[in-house]
Amino acid sequence: xxxxxxxxxxxxxPDAIQRGKALxxxxxxxxxxxxxxxxxxxxxxxxxxxxxxxRFDVLEVWGYIYKAQYRMRFLYARIPGECVLMGQEILEASxxx
Length: 97
Prior knowledge:
Number of domains: 1
Order of helices and strands: HEEEEE
Structural class: alpha+beta
Shape: globular
Number of helices: 1
Strand content: 35-45%
Helix content: 10-25%
């Protein structure tokens, strides 16, 4: 029985990691050794654009500051050969209750 081939790496994965570092620094007004972004980029199902019939690719990376973890998602337009960022979100992975 043949194993399934590994999933293809999205062309914008390196861009998502770089943008993750910048987003953490922007949100927490520093860029120091306590901040890091993982090197794994997960490609999630695409989402429909707010206008028109296009779709956005969704890439997820995780960031870390001390013991806190942050999920970051970046939305890219589907333009061949380009990494056009159309949206981003950051959410702390914690239970506030």
